[in-house]
Protein backbone atom coordinates (compact mmCIF):
# COMPACT_ATOMS: atom_id res chain seq x y z
CA UNK A 1 0.00 0.00 0.00
CA UNK A 2 1.35 3.45 -0.88
CA UNK A 3 2.04 5.81 1.97
CA UNK A 4 3.46 9.27 2.46
CA UNK A 5 5.40 10.44 5.48
CA UNK A 6 5.42 14.10 4.40
CA UNK A 7 4.22 16.33 7.20
CA UNK A 8 4.39 13.55 9.81
CA UNK A 9 6.04 14.02 13.21
CA UNK A 10 8.30 11.44 14.86
CA UNK A 11 7.44 11.40 18.55
CA UNK A 12 7.83 7.67 19.23
CA UNK A 13 8.16 4.79 16.81
CA UNK A 14 5.03 3.33 18.40
CA UNK A 15 3.11 5.92 16.34
CA UNK A 16 4.65 4.80 13.04
CA UNK A 17 3.73 1.68 11.10
CA UNK A 18 6.34 -1.01 10.50
CA UNK A 19 6.23 -0.11 6.81
CA UNK A 20 7.05 3.54 7.58
CA UNK A 21 9.88 2.58 9.92
CA UNK A 22 11.36 0.21 7.33
CA UNK A 23 11.09 2.86 4.63
CA UNK A 24 13.15 5.36 6.65
CA UNK A 25 15.66 2.67 7.60
CA UNK A 26 16.29 1.79 3.94
CA UNK A 27 16.38 5.48 3.03
CA UNK A 28 19.12 5.94 5.68
CA UNK A 29 21.16 3.27 3.94
CA UNK A 30 20.65 4.88 0.53
CA UNK A 31 21.56 8.37 1.77
CA UNK A 32 24.69 7.00 3.46
CA UNK A 33 25.76 5.26 0.24
CA UNK A 34 25.07 8.45 -1.72
CA UNK A 35 27.22 10.54 0.61
CA UNK A 36 30.06 8.00 0.50
CA UNK A 37 29.84 8.06 -3.29
CA UNK A 38 30.19 11.84 -3.36
CA UNK A 39 26.69 12.41 -4.73
CA UNK A 40 25.57 15.94 -3.87
CA UNK A 41 22.53 15.97 -1.63
CA UNK A 42 22.32 19.72 -1.67
CA UNK A 43 19.21 20.32 -3.69
CA UNK A 44 19.46 23.57 -5.59
CA UNK A 45 16.82 26.01 -4.50
CA UNK A 46 16.20 24.25 -1.20
CA UNK A 47 14.81 27.01 0.98
CA UNK A 48 13.79 24.93 3.96
CA UNK A 49 14.60 26.00 7.52
CA UNK A 50 14.70 23.82 10.60
CA UNK A 51 15.20 24.57 14.28
CA UNK A 52 16.94 22.29 16.78
CA UNK A 53 15.87 22.91 20.38
CA UNK A 54 17.92 21.13 23.02
CA UNK A 55 16.71 21.58 26.58
CA UNK A 56 19.15 18.84 27.59
CA UNK A 57 22.75 18.54 26.41
CA UNK A 58 23.63 16.75 23.17
CA UNK A 59 26.68 16.05 21.04
CA UNK A 60 25.50 13.48 18.47
CA UNK A 61 21.86 14.37 17.95
CA UNK A 62 22.48 18.09 17.61
CA UNK A 63 25.42 17.58 15.23
CA UNK A 64 23.47 14.98 13.25
CA UNK A 65 20.52 17.32 12.67
CA UNK A 66 22.79 20.22 11.77
CA UNK A 67 25.09 18.35 9.36
CA UNK A 68 22.19 16.47 7.77
CA UNK A 69 20.33 19.73 7.17
CA UNK A 70 23.44 21.45 5.79
CA UNK A 71 24.05 18.52 3.42
CA UNK A 72 20.49 18.95 2.17
CA UNK A 73 20.97 22.68 1.66
CA UNK A 74 18.71 23.67 4.54
CA UNK A 75 19.24 26.41 7.11
CA UNK A 76 19.41 25.53 10.79
CA UNK A 77 18.82 27.50 13.99
CA UNK A 78 20.07 26.02 17.26
CA UNK A 79 18.35 26.90 20.55
CA UNK A 80 20.01 25.56 23.70
CA UNK A 81 18.84 25.22 27.28
CA UNK A 82 19.20 28.95 27.90
CA UNK A 83 18.80 32.05 25.76
CA UNK A 84 15.21 31.64 24.62
CA UNK A 85 11.78 32.23 26.17
CA UNK A 86 10.73 28.57 25.80
CA UNK A 87 9.04 27.22 28.87
CA UNK A 88 10.04 30.23 30.99
CA UNK A 89 8.03 33.21 29.75
CA UNK A 90 6.34 31.37 26.91
CA UNK A 91 4.44 28.10 26.98
CA UNK A 92 5.33 25.19 24.71
CA UNK A 93 1.97 25.69 22.99
CA UNK A 94 2.65 29.36 22.17
CA UNK A 95 6.24 28.57 21.17
CA UNK A 96 4.97 25.91 18.77
CA UNK A 97 2.60 28.38 17.13
CA UNK A 98 5.42 30.90 16.71
CA UNK A 99 8.10 28.50 15.44
CA UNK A 100 5.67 26.70 13.15
CA UNK A 101 5.40 29.98 11.24
CA UNK A 102 9.16 30.28 10.80
CA UNK A 103 10.35 26.74 10.28
CA UNK A 104 9.57 23.69 8.15
CA UNK A 105 10.55 21.26 10.91
CA UNK A 106 11.35 21.29 14.63
CA UNK A 107 13.71 18.94 16.51
CA UNK A 108 13.10 19.01 20.24
CA UNK A 109 14.98 17.44 23.17
CA UNK A 110 13.44 17.87 26.61
CA UNK A 111 12.37 16.05 29.74
CA UNK A 112 8.60 15.64 29.72
CA UNK A 113 7.32 13.65 26.73
CA UNK A 114 4.11 15.72 26.87
CA UNK A 115 6.13 18.77 25.75
CA UNK A 116 7.10 17.21 22.43
CA UNK A 117 3.47 16.12 21.95
CA UNK A 118 2.24 19.66 22.65
CA UNK A 119 4.77 21.05 20.17
CA UNK A 120 3.60 18.64 17.51
CA UNK A 121 -0.09 19.33 18.16
CA UNK A 122 0.40 23.09 17.74
CA UNK A 123 3.28 23.68 15.31
CA UNK A 124 1.62 22.60 12.06
CA UNK A 125 4.99 21.27 10.84
CA UNK A 126 6.79 17.98 11.57
CA UNK A 127 8.30 17.72 15.05
CA UNK A 128 11.13 15.24 15.66
CA UNK A 129 11.64 13.96 19.19
CA UNK A 130 15.37 14.36 19.78
CA UNK A 131 14.99 12.58 23.17
CA UNK A 132 12.60 12.85 26.08
CA UNK A 133 12.65 11.06 29.42
CA UNK A 134 10.53 8.31 27.85
CA UNK A 135 11.68 7.86 24.24
CA UNK A 136 14.61 8.40 21.87
CA UNK A 137 13.16 7.50 18.44
CA UNK A 138 15.76 9.05 16.11
CA UNK A 139 18.46 6.87 17.70
CA UNK A 140 16.56 3.73 16.60
CA UNK A 141 17.24 4.24 12.91
CA UNK A 142 20.99 4.61 13.47
CA UNK A 143 21.00 1.49 15.61
CA UNK A 144 19.20 -0.69 13.11
CA UNK A 145 21.16 0.76 10.19
CA UNK A 146 24.26 -0.44 12.06
CA UNK A 147 22.65 -3.85 12.58
CA UNK A 148 21.59 -4.06 8.95
CA UNK A 149 25.12 -3.24 7.81
CA UNK A 150 26.56 -5.85 10.14
CA UNK A 151 24.20 -8.78 9.62
CA UNK A 152 22.30 -7.93 6.42
CA UNK A 153 19.04 -8.52 8.30
CA UNK A 154 17.22 -7.21 11.36
CA UNK A 155 15.58 -10.36 12.76
CA UNK A 156 18.49 -10.86 15.13
CA UNK A 157 18.65 -11.65 18.86
CA UNK A 158 19.05 -8.35 20.69
CA UNK A 159 19.88 -8.19 24.42
CA UNK A 160 19.47 -4.83 26.14
CA UNK A 161 21.30 -4.64 29.50
CA UNK A 162 20.75 -2.27 32.41
CA UNK A 163 18.04 0.36 32.84
CA UNK A 164 15.55 -1.25 30.46
CA UNK A 165 12.79 1.23 31.32
CA UNK A 166 14.63 4.39 30.32
CA UNK A 167 14.14 6.20 27.00
CA UNK A 168 16.54 3.79 25.25
CA UNK A 169 15.09 0.59 26.76
CA UNK A 170 11.56 1.67 25.84
CA UNK A 171 12.48 2.69 22.30
CA UNK A 172 14.68 -0.31 21.54
CA UNK A 173 11.91 -2.67 22.64
CA UNK A 174 9.45 -0.99 20.24
CA UNK A 175 12.01 -0.94 17.42
CA UNK A 176 12.80 -4.65 17.91
CA UNK A 177 9.08 -5.29 17.56
CA UNK A 178 8.97 -3.44 14.23
CA UNK A 179 12.16 -5.13 13.03
CA UNK A 180 11.06 -8.71 13.75
CA UNK A 181 13.91 -9.09 16.25
CA UNK A 182 14.11 -11.25 19.37
CA UNK A 183 14.40 -8.64 22.14
CA UNK A 184 15.51 -9.57 25.63
CA UNK A 185 15.53 -6.87 28.30
CA UNK A 186 18.17 -8.00 30.79
CA UNK A 187 17.56 -6.21 34.08
CA UNK A 188 16.00 -6.59 37.52
CA UNK A 189 12.19 -6.57 37.23
CA UNK A 190 11.86 -3.04 38.63
CA UNK A 191 13.84 -1.80 35.59
CA UNK A 192 11.57 -3.41 32.99
CA UNK A 193 9.40 -1.04 30.92
CA UNK A 194 5.88 -0.10 31.85
CA UNK A 195 3.44 -3.00 31.31
CA UNK A 196 1.27 -1.04 28.91
CA UNK A 197 4.30 -0.30 26.72
CA UNK A 198 5.33 -3.97 26.75
CA UNK A 199 1.78 -4.80 25.63
CA UNK A 200 2.04 -2.28 22.79
CA UNK A 201 5.39 -3.72 21.71
CA UNK A 202 3.96 -7.24 21.80
CA UNK A 203 1.02 -6.13 19.64
CA UNK A 204 3.47 -4.90 16.97
CA UNK A 205 5.60 -8.03 17.43
CA UNK A 206 2.60 -10.23 16.74
CA UNK A 207 2.43 -8.82 13.23
CA UNK A 208 6.17 -8.94 12.48
CA UNK A 209 7.19 -12.22 14.13
CA UNK A 210 9.31 -10.40 16.73
CA UNK A 211 9.70 -11.78 20.26
CA UNK A 212 9.73 -9.58 23.38
CA UNK A 213 11.17 -11.14 26.52
CA UNK A 214 12.79 -10.17 29.81
CA UNK A 215 15.29 -11.84 32.10
CA UNK A 216 16.99 -10.88 35.33
CA UNK A 217 19.82 -13.31 34.58
CA UNK A 218 22.71 -11.67 32.65
CA UNK A 219 24.19 -14.89 31.29
CA UNK A 220 20.85 -16.41 30.24
CA UNK A 221 19.84 -13.08 28.71
CA UNK A 222 23.04 -12.76 26.67
CA UNK A 223 23.08 -16.39 25.50
CA UNK A 224 23.48 -16.52 21.69
CA UNK A 225 22.69 -12.81 21.34
CA UNK A 226 23.80 -11.16 18.11
CA UNK A 227 23.73 -7.70 19.65
CA UNK A 228 24.44 -6.74 23.25
CA UNK A 229 23.35 -3.17 23.89
CA UNK A 230 23.53 -1.05 27.01
CA UNK A 231 23.03 2.57 28.10
CA UNK A 232 23.88 4.69 31.11
CA UNK A 233 22.32 3.70 34.43
CA UNK A 234 21.48 7.29 35.32
CA UNK A 235 19.96 9.36 32.53
CA UNK A 236 20.13 13.11 31.99
CA UNK A 237 17.88 14.98 34.40
CA UNK A 238 17.80 12.27 37.08
CA UNK A 239 18.87 13.44 40.55
CA UNK A 240 22.33 12.62 41.96
CA UNK A 241 20.60 10.76 44.78
CA UNK A 242 19.81 7.78 42.49
CA UNK A 243 23.46 6.90 41.71
CA UNK A 244 24.01 4.79 44.84
CA UNK A 245 20.89 2.68 44.36
CA UNK A 246 21.49 2.21 40.60
CA UNK A 247 25.08 1.07 41.16
CA UNK A 248 23.91 -1.38 43.81
CA UNK A 249 21.07 -2.83 41.72
CA UNK A 250 22.62 -2.77 38.25
CA UNK A 251 26.29 -3.70 38.86
CA UNK A 252 25.41 -7.33 38.11
CA UNK A 253 24.32 -6.15 34.63
CA UNK A 254 27.60 -4.57 33.52
CA UNK A 255 28.46 -5.78 30.02
CA UNK A 256 31.80 -7.48 30.49
CA UNK A 257 33.81 -10.24 28.82
CA UNK A 258 31.86 -12.95 30.66
CA UNK A 259 28.65 -11.64 29.13
CA UNK A 260 30.17 -11.31 25.64
CA UNK A 261 31.63 -14.85 25.90
CA UNK A 262 28.17 -16.50 25.75
CA UNK A 263 26.90 -14.47 22.79
CA UNK A 264 26.84 -15.67 19.18
CA UNK A 265 30.28 -15.91 17.48
CA UNK A 266 29.64 -12.84 15.29
CA UNK A 267 28.04 -10.76 18.02
CA UNK A 268 28.60 -7.03 18.38
CA UNK A 269 28.43 -4.56 21.25
CA UNK A 270 26.42 -1.34 20.87
CA UNK A 271 25.75 1.77 22.99
CA UNK A 272 23.97 5.01 22.08
CA UNK A 273 26.70 6.99 23.88
CA UNK A 274 27.85 8.81 25.94
CA UNK A 275 29.12 5.78 27.93
CA UNK A 276 30.63 5.38 31.37
CA UNK A 277 33.43 2.96 30.44
CA UNK A 278 36.39 4.79 32.02
CA UNK A 279 37.05 7.76 34.26
CA UNK A 280 38.15 10.25 31.59
CA UNK A 281 35.18 12.52 32.23
CA UNK A 282 34.15 14.92 35.01
CA UNK A 283 31.28 12.67 36.12
CA UNK A 284 33.45 9.57 35.72
CA UNK A 285 36.01 11.03 38.11
CA UNK A 286 33.35 12.11 40.62
CA UNK A 287 31.69 8.69 40.63
CA UNK A 288 35.01 6.92 40.83
CA UNK A 289 35.98 9.00 43.87
CA UNK A 290 32.61 8.49 45.55
CA UNK A 291 31.96 4.81 44.79
CA UNK A 292 35.40 3.40 43.97
CA UNK A 293 34.46 2.16 40.47
CA UNK A 294 36.13 2.89 37.12
CA UNK A 295 33.24 1.88 34.81
CA UNK A 296 29.53 1.25 35.07
CA UNK A 297 27.36 -0.22 32.32
CA UNK A 298 30.26 -1.57 30.21
CA UNK A 299 33.89 -2.40 30.88
CA UNK A 300 36.54 -0.42 29.05
CA UNK A 301 37.76 -3.68 27.53
CA UNK A 302 34.43 -4.51 25.87
CA UNK A 303 33.90 -0.88 24.85
CA UNK A 304 37.25 -0.85 23.03
CA UNK A 305 37.07 -4.46 21.78
CA UNK A 306 36.82 -5.48 18.15
CA UNK A 307 33.16 -6.37 18.77
CA UNK A 308 32.32 -2.77 19.59
CA UNK A 309 30.45 -0.81 16.91
CA UNK A 310 29.72 2.28 19.00
CA UNK A 311 31.44 4.84 16.77
CA UNK A 312 29.98 3.46 13.55
CA UNK A 313 26.60 3.63 15.27
CA UNK A 314 27.30 7.27 16.24
CA UNK A 315 28.12 8.17 12.63
CA UNK A 316 24.92 6.50 11.51
CA UNK A 317 22.96 9.05 13.56
CA UNK A 318 23.68 11.60 10.86
CA UNK A 319 22.68 9.45 7.86
CA UNK A 320 19.51 8.26 9.57
CA UNK A 321 18.45 11.68 10.86
CA UNK A 322 18.92 12.90 7.30
CA UNK A 323 16.53 10.17 6.18
CA UNK A 324 13.98 11.23 8.81
CA UNK A 325 14.19 14.84 7.59
CA UNK A 326 13.92 13.87 3.91
CA UNK A 327 11.04 11.47 4.50
CA UNK A 328 8.97 13.87 6.59
CA UNK A 329 9.80 17.18 4.83
CA UNK A 330 10.63 16.07 1.34
CA UNK A 331 13.59 17.72 -0.34
N1 LIG B 1 23.10 9.20 21.61
C1 LIG B 1 22.79 10.50 21.78
O1 LIG B 1 21.63 10.92 21.70
O2 LIG B 1 23.84 11.30 22.02
P1 LIG B 1 23.78 12.86 22.39
O3 LIG B 1 23.19 12.95 23.78
O4 LIG B 1 25.20 13.31 22.33
O5 LIG B 1 22.90 13.55 21.40
N1 LIG C 1 19.33 7.33 28.59
C1 LIG C 1 20.27 8.37 28.19
C2 LIG C 1 20.38 8.41 26.71
C3 LIG C 1 21.39 9.43 26.19
C4 LIG C 1 21.48 9.45 24.70
C5 LIG C 1 19.82 9.71 28.74
O1 LIG C 1 18.64 10.04 28.62
O2 LIG C 1 20.65 10.41 29.32
Mean pLDDT figure:
97
Instruction: Write the H/E string, N to C.
Output: HEHEHEHEHEHEHEHEHHEHHH
Which residues form runs of ≥5 with pLDDT under 50? none
Bound small molecules, by name, code or SMILES, are:
phosphoric acid mono(formamide)ester, norvaline
Q: First CA to last CA: what distance?
A: 22 Å
Strand segment count = 9
Helix content: 40-55%
Alpha carbon gyration radius: 19 Å
Count of DSSP helices?
Answer: 13
| Biggest sheet character | 5 strands, parallel
Helix-strand category? alpha/beta
Shape from CA axes? globular
Strand order of the largest sheet: 7-6-5-8-9
Approximate strand percentage: 5-15%
Molecular structure report:
With 331 residues, this protein is of the alpha/beta class. 44% of the residues lie in helices and 13% in strands. Strands 7-6-5-8-9 form a five-stranded parallel beta sheet. The chain has a four-stranded parallel beta sheet with strand order 2-1-3-4, sandwiched between helices. Helix 1 (18-36) packs across helix 13 (310-329), helix 2 packs across helix 13 (310-329) and helix 6 (167-179) packs parallel to helix 7 (195-208). The mean pLDDT is 97. Norvaline (NVA) binds next to helix 6.
Amino acid sequence: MAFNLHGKSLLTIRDWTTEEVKHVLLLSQTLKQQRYSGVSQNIEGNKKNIVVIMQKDSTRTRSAFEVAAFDLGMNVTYIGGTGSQIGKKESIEDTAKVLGGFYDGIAFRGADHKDVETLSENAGVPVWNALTDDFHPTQMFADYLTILEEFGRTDIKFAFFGDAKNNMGNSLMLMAAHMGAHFVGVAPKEFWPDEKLIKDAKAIAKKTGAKIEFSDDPIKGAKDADVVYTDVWVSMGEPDSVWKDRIKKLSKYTVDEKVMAVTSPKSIFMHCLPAFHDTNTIIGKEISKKFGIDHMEVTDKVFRSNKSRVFKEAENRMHSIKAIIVATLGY
